[in-house]
Write a structure and sequence with these properties.
With 731 residues, the chain is α/β, with parallel strands linked by helices. The chain has five domains: 31 residues; 218 residues, Periplasmic binding protein-like II (D-Maltodextrin-Binding Protein, domain 2, 3-Layer(aba) Sandwich), CATH 3.40.190; 45 residues; 159 residues, 2-Layer Sandwich (Alpha-Beta Plaits), CATH 3.30.70.270; 178 residues, EAL domain (TIM Barrel, Alpha-Beta Barrel), CATH 3.20.20. Helix content is 49%, strand content 21%. The structure holds ligand C2E and magnesium ion (2 copies).
Length: 731
């Protein structure tokens, strides 16, 4: 019994000891497991699918990462994957940040010159060449190959394999492709798995893998050759030997069958550029149409509002506001058109309203505006001031026009109520203000309306009807101007305009040396009018060129006739400043005339009046030079009168100066005048120009001029301007 007890105690003791031991072993082994070494592995991230950062998890993944994880597991390491920030593997080797780095093809030296040691192959990596076309390549020993700079380590291995291969490094694959396209290299070299990824980029469709030029390289991890390095490499090698081939294949298959390449904006542009641009254009067109529609709606609304503000609702005439604006516009656009403004009022309008009803009154007003609008042109306007008072801006077109208006507007208005079966004649009072040049300088429409209203009130208060002028004189002048300017063309046709000649003489030899052509107008309505009136009117309205062309041609015709009669003459013609601005190549016109009438240029003297200089001196100088270089003599007209400018004498290269004696006072030929004349003559002579005195009226003047050696003269003392017939008789 005691023996059995003892055995039981022993058994118990053994059991508990075994249990304790078992626990101890378990504890120790679990302790050992939790104290596994941690290995920091440095890897690149720009080599998809070998090493890259996953878009979703943002972790570094890839074939290389999965392989080293498996190997490390087999070797009993925990690993931390760290991205290599150094530019290449040689620099990364020297960094204390990583325990090992990868990938290596073979052992290389670090930047600091330390030797590296590498593991066995984790796998064999195929390397392929890529070219732009399917052409055959030079042999691998002579080919020029581009590689990313980050593969410098690989490049060393490649160099050992193919010493004749020329390697050019590019910052990245994109740079390499550019180099390849430019022909800097024959091919690009990279890991085949990387190519399978990169070549998914749409713009690389023309890159071709060269299957013939393929070789494989090791894929290893490495570190510096140190005792610790040695120990890590040994342990990793142990892991590599345990790594099953099927595992490796599964990892490669996993990554190479996924579609890892993600399109960036440029890829989409490359692939779908035409569609994208079309889409953008379509979108822009839709937006544009919408904006345009919105704008036109706004404009229409604005226009409607403007119409409301600027127009009188009842009659459709302008409101005062609208009239003011429109008149300003018209006057600014037509500065040379003569205008008047009339202020018109219906006599006893209140009586019409009271007796026939407001509706009839309104009808009358509407009728008045309607028939007025019928006769008004685009650049005229009618506005309603208040109730029965209207203002009209109208062009001045002579007396007839006023009578036409009388017929077309006033009479129908007078008879409006009668035509409606009411026995009442409507009477109008109108005041007229003729716009003056000052009104155009400083356009003040209210001011002009006030003047017209004063004339209207004066007429009404005197108990009369019809119309009355505020400024009758201006009306007469304007009307004459209109008569002159408006009739030029028909006057030329009807030969109302004639060219007269005033002989020019040499006082010493008493011979006629030439003549000046001056035009005369026997106007159909106005009788004889002087150049002093019609020349400025035509100049201001821009019509002088038409007249002068006619005069020049007429003079050339006369010269031609005299030439044929054996009487070669010289004639001076006047050229206005507006002629030059109208035709800056006026010398060509004169050349044509000379040719047409078989004249020589010296037969035409061109008189340019001094006032032309003020306008555009550059053009005037150029015109003068052109004329002279074509053989015409150019004369400065009217020197001494008007715009005397000594500067002009200096700058304008004329042949002859026409000194105008008319600036001297008419009472005698006094001392001061003689002094001025003496020095003017001397000055012109010293400047080397010819001289002709015009406006010579007395023998005294002629004698004085002769004493100063000025012999060429023109003036009433010798001859007045005369008709062609008289002139022909004289010569
Ligand atoms: P102008 O070119 O200086 O012509 C000379 C003017 O002086 C002429 O006036 C002539 O009749 C006048 N005259 C001539 N001798 C005397 C004199 O002894 N005493 C006075 N007091 N006057 C004299 P007209 O013909 O009335 O012409 C005036 C201006 O009109 C001309 O001055 C000229 O500038 C211009 N003109 C005349 N015909 C034409 C033409 O066909 N075309 C152009 N563009 N202008 C012309
Ligand atoms: Mg002249
Ligand atoms: Mg003159």
């Amino acid at each position: 019994m005691g023996g059995l007890k003892f055995r039981k105690v022993i058994q118990k003791a053994i059991l508990s000891t075994v249990t304790v031991l078992c626990f101890a072993v378990l504890f120790v082994s679990s302790e050992a497991a939790s104290s596994k070494d941690t290995l920091i592995v440095g890897v690149p991230t720009d080599r998809c699918p070998m090493f890259y950062i996953d878009n979703v998890s943002e972790e570094t993944v890839g074939i290389g990462v999965d392989l080293i994880r498996e190997v490390a597991k087999e070797a009993g390491y925990d690993i931390i994957i760290k991205n290599i920030t150094e530019g290449n593997m040689k620099d990364a080797l020297d960094s204390a940040e990583y325990d090992v780095i990868m990938p290596f093809g073979s052992a290389i030296t670090s930047t600091s010159g330390m030797n590296a040691i590498v593991t066995e192959n984790l796998m064999e990596i195929p390397f392929t060449l890529v070219t732009t076309k399917n052409s055959s390549l030079p042999t691998l020993n002579t080919v020029r190959v581009g590689m990313p700079a980050s593969l410098k380590g690989v490049a060393e291995t490649v160099h050992e394999l193919y010493p004749g291969m020329k390697i050019v490094f590019y910052d990245d694959i994109r740079g390499g492709v550019k180099g390849l396209q430019k022909g800097e290299v024959d091919a690009l070299l990279n890991n085949s798995y990387v190519w399978s990824y990169v070549l998914q980029k749409p713009s690389y469709v023309n890159l071709h893998v060269q299957p013939s030029a393929m070789f494989s390289m090791g894929f290893k991890a490495g570190t510096l050759d140190t005792p610790r390095g040695q120990e890590i490499i040994d342990r990793l090698n142990m892991g590599i030997s345990r790594l099953e081939e099927t595992k490796t294949e599964a990892i490669i298959l996993d990554y190479t069958t996924r579609r890892l390449y993600h399109y960036d904006l440029w890829d989409y542009m490359y692939q779908y550029g035409a569609f994208i641009i079309l889409g953008i254009l379509l979108f822009a067109a839709v937006i544009g149409t919408m904006v345009f529609r919105q704008r036109s709606i706004t404009l229409m609304q604005e226009e409607r509002l403007r119409l409301l503000i600027d127009h009188d609702e009842l009659t459709g005439a302008y409101s005062m506001n609208g009239f003011r604006k429109r008149v300003e516009e018209i006057l600014r656009e037509n500065p040379s058109v003569p205008y008047f403004i009339s202020y018109n009022n219906i006599v006893d309008f209140k009586f019409i309203n009271d007796s026939f009803g407001k509706e009839t009154g309104d009808k009358l007003l509407k009728y008045w505006v309607k028939i007025s609008k019928n006769i008004l042109s685009e650049d005229e306007a009618i506005g309603r001031v208040t109730a029965d008072q209207f203002v009209v801006l109208r062009r001045i077109e002579g007396n007839e026009k006023i009578y036409e208006d009388e017929q077309d507007v006033v009479e129908p208005v007078n008879n409006f109520l009668i035509s409606q079966g009411k026995n009442f004649k409507v009477q109008l009072c109108s005041g007229i203000y003729v716009l003056t040049p000052d009104d155009l300088q400083n356009i003040d429409v209210d001011h002009m309306i006030d003047f017209a209203r004063i004339a209207e009130r004066k007429l009404r208060e005197s108990g009369k009807t019809g119309f009355e002028f505020y400024n009758l004189n201006q009306w007469e002048t304007k009307k004459r101007t209109v008569d002159i300017v408006g009739h030029l063309s028909s006057a030329i046709e009807a030969e109302e305009i004639q060219v007269w000649y005033q002989p020019q003489v040499n006082f010493e030899s008493n011979t006629i040396i030439g003549a000046e052509a001056l035009c005369r107008w026997a106007h159909g309505n106005l009788g004889w009018i002087s150049p002093g009136e019609f020349i400025p009117a035509l100049e201001n309205s821009g019509k002088i060129y038409e007249l002068d062309c006619y005069v020049w041609e007429k003079v050339c015709k006369d010269l031609h006739r005299w030439n044929n009669l054996g009487k070669r003459m010289t004639v001076s013609v006047n050229v206005s400043r507006s002629d030059i601005s109208e035709n800056p190549d006026i010398h060509l016109l004169f050349m044509d005339l000379i040719r047409k009438y078989e004249l020589t240029p010296d037969q035409l003297h061109i008189e340019i009046t001094e006032s032309a200089y003020v306008k555009d001196s550059k053009l005037l100088i150029l015109t003068t030079e052109n004329l002279r270089s074509n053989g015409f003599l150019v004369e400065m007209d009217d020197f001494g009168s008007g715009y005397s400018s000594l500067n002009m004498l200096k700058e304008l290269p004329v042949d002859r100066v026409k000194l105008d004696l008319r600036f001297l006072s008419s009472e005698g030929f006094e001392e001061k005048g003689q002094i001025i004349l003496t020095y003017l003559i001397q000055m012109i002579q010293l400047l080397g120009m010819d001289l002709l005195a015009e406006g010579v009226e007395t023998l005294d003047q002629a004698m004085f001029l002769k004493s100063k050696d000025c012999l060429e003269m023109q003036g009433y003392y010798f001859h007045k301007p005369m008709s062609v017939i008289d002139f022909e008789e004289l010569i």
